[in-house]
Structure formats: structure tokens, C-alpha cells
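Sequence only, no structure available. Ideas?
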Amino acid sequence: MNIRDMEYIVAVADLNSFSGAASACHVSQPSLSAQIKKVEEELGMKIFERTKRTVTLSAFGHAFVPRARKIIEEVEKIRSDAKAHANPFFGHISIGAIATVAPYLFPAILQTIRSDAPDLNISLRESVTGDLLKGLLSGDIDMAILSLPTDTHVLEEFSLFEDPFYLAVAKGSPLAEMPFVGEELLRNMKLILLEEEHCLRQQALSICKGGLMQEDRSFRATSLETIRHIVATGQGVTLMPQLARQENDGITYIPIQSRNFSRTIGLVWRKTDERAPFYKIFASMISKK
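Reply:
I predicted one. C-alpha cells follow.
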């Protein structure tokens, strides 16, 4: 008994006719009848009660057909999934991004997908680096936008762009008129930073450890937007990535001279993922935007 046999049986049950079922299944009636008879012989049970004029389900047939129908539906789902995986621009894909990137890139990503791949369904997740890496490794998400490198050998990395840092100060600050700031001016400044789990905090601290600036321990935030409002009111300074810069937010963003203060933003996926070649195409689509 195979899936085609089940389709024959369900068709007869739906149409109450061997000839009608044969026509619907695009086979001859003798072939369909012979296959159903083989199934009945294999099972040792009659599925249909036949007369010259009528075809009805037997007691066993009433139990068999609903189960066969479910099996057919599941096989169709498998076929649909296979088709979706064969066509990377069809089906579903899940993308995660760190919280210091998601608000600024997700809208553009959605716009790109709806324009270039309208048949692709997408789900988005915003989280911290550690949770996104766990999601990638477990298969809960397909791709993640992170700060590179991840130092995880089972993941493929694709660099999207460099995201330079700026010193963010309130517009009324004496520093706001400066075209740029150098290392001497930065030395011993206190920075408002994000909470422990954010990679942006670790990047800022690495600069601090280089002898520039210190952490302002009086306040820690869970989002860049909170820090933005604190800085705008003149209650501190921070390093803000270019991606998060906004116009008319009460902040002046000052370029930092003499040192390469930036982060590399990239797309990451499992090397073993069967859709990995598509992810490279997708990464190129994002980087062009």
C-alpha cells in the first residue's frame, strides 16, 4: 500500500463512484479497481461494499478513510515544505538581530523582502548576542545580524558594513561645537553604557581599557534609546554607533579622530544549513540597501 493507493480510496469514498474516482485521479477504472482490491487483500479487510449500482464504505472503511486522508494531507505538507526549501524565495525564514541594530535595520529588511521576495514569509527576533547564538546553534532561527566576529567555527559570517562610533553629547555641551575629538580630550571621560549582556557595552569597555574614557557607573541602560534621552538632557555622554544616529534628537555626534572606533555588522548562519547559498544572496541584498 502506498500514498497513491490511499488517494484512490479517498477519491472513491468522496465520490461514491469508482468511475468518478478514476477520472479524478487520471487513471483507468480497471487500474484503480485493481489497486484498491490489492490493498483490501493486503489488509485482509473490505474497505468498500459494492453492488452493481452503489459503492459504500464498510465498517472498516469508515475507520480507514479518515486516517488515510490525514496521511495524504501530511504528505502534501512534506511536498510543500520540500518545494519551499528548493525555492529559497518561498516559504519561511527567521532572522534575529542584536538590540543595537534591530530597530534601525529591521524596517529596511522587511521592505527589501516584500519588494524582492514577496512569497517569502519572515519572522524577526530582537535579542542579545548570547541568546541569538544559542538560537542559531539550536536551529530556532536561521540567520542573525550581529557584531563580528562571533568566534564560533560552525557559523558562516558575512560582513555587511562598518559602523563607526561617535561621541554623543548634548547640543548645549561645550563639546558640541567641535568638528571632532581626539584621544587627549577623550581621556578620563565617563561613558553611560548598556547593561552587561549587550555586546556594544563590551566594545565600549575595550576602548576604555585602552586608556580612553571610563564607565559612568551611576547609570546603566537596557536600550540605546534610553541612553539617547539621558545624553540629550545633558546628564552624560556615550559612544553611539552611526546606525543609531538621528536628526533633531537634541544630540551632537562628534567624529573621533586618531583611532578606528567602529564595529563590523554582519549576517551569520550555520555552515551546515542547506539554504546557506541563499543566505549569501540575501546578505548581498541587505548590504546593497
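The mean pLDDT is 88.
Hope that gets you unstuck.
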